[in-house]
TrEMBL record:
<keyword id="KW-0732">Signal</keyword>
<dbReference type="GO" id="GO:0008250">
    <property type="term" value="C:oligosaccharyltransferase complex"/>
</dbReference>
<dbReference type="Pfam" id="PF25147">
    <property type="entry name" value="Ribophorin_II_C"/>
</dbReference>
<feature type="transmembrane region" description="Helical">
    <location>
        <begin position="251"/>
        <end position="269"/>
    </location>
</feature>
<comment type="function">
    <text>Subunit of the oligosaccharyl transferase (OST) complex that catalyzes the initial transfer of a defined glycan (Glc(3)Man(9)GlcNAc(2) in eukaryotes) from the lipid carrier dolichol-pyrophosphate to an asparagine residue within an Asn-X-Ser/Thr consensus motif in nascent polypeptide chains, the first step in protein N-glycosylation. N-glycosylation occurs cotranslationally and the complex associates with the Sec61 complex at the channel-forming translocon complex that mediates protein translocation across the endoplasmic reticulum (ER). All subunits are required for a maximal enzyme activity.</text>
</comment>
<feature type="domain" description="Ribophorin II third">
    <location>
        <begin position="25"/>
        <end position="150"/>
    </location>
</feature>
<feature type="signal peptide">
    <location>
        <begin position="1"/>
        <end position="16"/>
    </location>
</feature>
<keyword id="KW-0472">Membrane</keyword>
<comment type="similarity">
    <text>Belongs to the SWP1 family.</text>
</comment>
<protein>
    <recommendedName>
        <fullName>Dolichyl-diphosphooligosaccharide--protein glycosyltransferase subunit 2</fullName>
    </recommendedName>
</protein>
<dbReference type="InterPro" id="IPR008814">
    <property type="entry name" value="Swp1"/>
</dbReference>
<comment type="pathway">
    <text>Protein modification; protein glycosylation.</text>
</comment>
<dbReference type="InterPro" id="IPR056790">
    <property type="entry name" value="Ribophorin_II_C"/>
</dbReference>
<feature type="transmembrane region" description="Helical">
    <location>
        <begin position="223"/>
        <end position="245"/>
    </location>
</feature>
<dbReference type="InterPro" id="IPR055374">
    <property type="entry name" value="Ribophorin_II_3rd"/>
</dbReference>
<feature type="domain" description="Ribophorin II C-terminal">
    <location>
        <begin position="178"/>
        <end position="274"/>
    </location>
</feature>
<keyword id="KW-0256">Endoplasmic reticulum</keyword>
Length: 280
């Protein structure tokens, strides 16, 4: 997108018609808040001359500037890319404000100074006002100091960022209050919960003792003891999780132990299937 914008500007600058520009109907004045601009309260300023008397205004008043920009060749109105009012304070600080055109192509700056004070960054007092006009199609860009103004602008409070604040007094001591541990259940409830959790294992061992464990059909494979050792290790890991390990430690060891147990169990099932096919 930036490349297209640069190319469009270069294309415009190359093939655009270059003209001399003139400022016409230039008027400036200080108005009250609801005052209508007319010939009595506005002063005409000859182009490239300066208003002889200094303008004076307070924050409740309006600065009104109006003018037209036309081609010298045929007096046709134009709309340059850059039209600004520049305010230069006595200390060299400057403020640049955009001047926009209306539907008729006339340029008007009409703003209450209190509203515009934020753009002046807490500057107040005497300013030199200049009109700046520029465009790639303009042969004679304009930088015209047309008046001086003494503006009493209100100070706009701008809080200092917290990162730039400097504090020399000691800060308040930070005290941490930890949440009180929740009340634990009684020993009877804890023991009952332990028995309930261990009951499936007790039932499994009881069924094994009742049905019996048949080791005769175990295939002759080294994966059989590895599978049973891995299975016993998982039960032992559950016990350690109960009495010592936290969840993350348990999952770390279970990921390794479970992988070997899974592979060994798969090999045992494959060996059982091969033994069954041979017997049939």
């Amino acid at each position: 997108m930036k490349l297209l914008f640069i190319l469009s500007v270069l294309f415009t600058a190359t093939f655009a018609t270059v003209d001399d520009v003139a400022v016409t109907n230039f008027k400036v004045g200080i108005l009250a808040k609801d005052q209508v601009p007319d010939g009595e309260n506005l002063k005409n300023v000859v182009v490239h001359s300066k208003l002889p008397n200094e303008l004076k205004a307070d924050a409740s008043q309006r600065l009104y500037v109006s003018f037209n920009l036309v081609k010298k060749s045929d007096n046709a109105k134009i709309k340059p890319q850059q039209v600004f009012l520049r305010f230069v304070a006595q200390d060299g600080e400057d403020v640049v404000l955009v001047v926009k055109d209306d539907s008729n192509g006339n340029y008007v700056y009409d703003t209450i100074l209190r509203t515009a004070s934020k753009s002046f960054r807490n500057l107040s007092g005497q300013f030199k006002i200049s009109l700046l006009v520029g465009d790639v199609t303009i042969k004679n860009p304009i930088n015209w100091n047309f008046a001086d103004i003494d503006a009493s602008l209100p100070t706009v409070y701008e809080p200092t960022p917290k990162s730039q604040q400097v504090r020399y007094e000691p800060l308040n001591e930070i005290t941490h209050e930890f949440r009180q541990p929740e009340k634990r259940p009684s020993a009877v409830i804890s023991d009952l919960f332990t028995v309930i959790c261990l009951s499936p294992l007790v039932v499994l061992i009881g069924l094994w003792l009742q049905i019996g464990i048949n080791f005769q059909n175990a295939p002759a494979s080294p994966w059989v003891p590895i599978f049973h050792v891995g299975l016993a290790g998982i039960f032992g890991l559950y016990f350690l999780f109960w009495v010592q390990f936290n969840m993350f430690e348990t999952l770390k060891y279970l990921s390794v132990l479970g992988f070997f147990t899974f592979v060994a169990g798969n090999r045992v099932l494959r060996a059982l299937s091969e033994t069954k096919e041979k017997s049939e």
